[in-house]
Structures
1.
Amino acid sequence: MADKLNIDKFHFVGHSMGGLIGMWLAHCFPKRIDKMILIAPAPSVGVRDGLLFDDMMKRNRRIRKDQDIDLLIKERIKTSSLPITEEQARERSLDFLDVSDEHFEQSGKMIASANIRKELELITNDVMYIVGAADFLLKDNLEDFLVMKNASLHVFSRIGHSIPREIPIECSQVIKDFFKHGVVNFKTLTQKVSDS
């Protein structure tokens, strides 16, 4: 798409599976990516607890087959980090049910079988990890972050996986700050002291 639009270099923002795609994109085309933001990305090493993931996929297949919107709405309201309305829960549930079966299955396979941690070590682009402290992917996100050579980290407390949906204003502020200041970590701060 960037080629078609004659865009040589661009920023990339990806959430969940989109973050995993961003990791691969930055590895394959490092000169095309300027800054990259990974929001609660799927882990670079795939899903480690295969039984848990398989159970989740089976359950989600059943819900999708039955189109059980009422069950999804109740669960979304109960498991949301922040209070949400029934209408917000309905919107999120419909998004889940509207995805094609092929997309659902292929995404699941990609997330389960990813194996690109070694490639992360080679990425030198400016990267921002935005993660939720209540996300089941937090441990994997932190391990991936520590492999990156040039990355900042922002952790939202009491927030789960759906950061852009649950706290869109706060999330966009972190993104805006990253675009303005770039990577800020111990290495970049000590470099500023050395330069002065």
2.
Amino acid sequence: MRRICVFCGSTSGVNGAYTGAAAALGRVLAEQGIGIVFGGGATGVMGALADAALAVGGEVIGVLPAAMNLPGGVHPRLTTVHVVDAMHTRKALMHRLADAFIALPGGLGTLDELFEVLTLSQLGYQPKPIGLLNVEGYFDPLLTLIDHAVSHGFVRPENRGVFTVAADPEALLAQLRRFVHPLASSVMPPSI
């Protein structure tokens, strides 16, 4: 894996563990020579992720729509910044630049980005590994909801396997490296 796209919040949340986990992930990725693709923010969980990776010489690529390219909002020390026309263009470029995806705690934007790659993965358009860094159980309610959807027949059991979960950055990275897409035996459509 050359680069991992990280979805995360532009605020810190109510728990300092979220920014701490982001910093730990940023450091681990950079130390292992894995670049980061993310939303380009300077604050919150995003800022902690970027700061930690950059502090140890990591590659950090920001991708943001022109409407969000505001002074103070974009991290000032990124390796590369891509300014695009719209959110859809942003997500498509982030997908192309990354070899895997990790979601950290975040809000609606983070969940939107996560569910888009989960949906593309279950449809076979995106066979790249997806992981949730479950900091202090942040994603537990989401995992319960997904399991509920499986038990009610709205999500196929094999599609529950398109992502992995860990509470530790190094453990999650190890799982992503071992990932085999559950639909790999079927013909995957061309990526979007």
3.
Amino acid sequence: MAEIWKGGPVAAALNEETAARVRAFQEQGIRPALAIIRVGEKPDDISYENGACRRAEALGITVFRFTLPANASQREVEETIDHAAEDPAIHGILFLRPLPRHMDEERLVRRIPPQKDVDGVTDLSLAGVFAGKELGFAPCTAQACMEVLRHYGVDCRGKRVVVVGRSLVVGRPAAMLLLAQNATVTICHTRTENLVDRVREADIVIAAAGQRQMFGREYFRSGQIVLDVGIHFDENGKMCGDVRTAEAEEAQAVTPVPGGVGSVTTAVLMSHVTIAAGRQTKNRKTE
């Protein structure tokens, strides 16, 4: 029977590291701060925002909320982003998306400075991930996968890893982060030939195909570590992932949905805020 690697202990350990950094900053008179920019009143956005605010408050991170109506103009949103980008008291920006259809989302995202892009959404942040440079931050879910592996003591060096999914949110950045840890990485997707064989060959599997309960018993073998990144709802309204968890029983370990990788992402976001604060403070001292 596979071990269930829950995300709660991972998030708790990461939060402890973040809280320690916050305390160190406070001793220097610095208060790490996050700006959350929301356009409209979508319930999912509000729920995520409220959850992020609760986590930030618990860690001692200041949150500035910027809320605009759904009919706000492109220019109004641009000015809000520019204000947060230029304010030295703000260290990170979380820009909730998707946006109303009348807005040019790509153009707006480009206005976020990579050093404040704690959600890893800008082209320069992704370039940093691919180049192994500190231009910005990795997308939070991709980084959450790495935090799960780190917490549970997985040494990625030399391991065969298959990432099923090629999105810029999870698949491709996760592959680059793993490659930086000297793993041997193969990126697959739903159109990969002989996908079952490719997945069974892996020591570590990251299931990020975006298809509900796609991966069943035939994909897994003994000794594997399986990280399920999918978030879906079944016909009964119950949350589930890309993996049929009960059928990954031969694996060494599998992350559940809910309660797995997804529960680590907000902790990663807050960690990024404090790291951003450290980088920006250092850069100001050297100017």
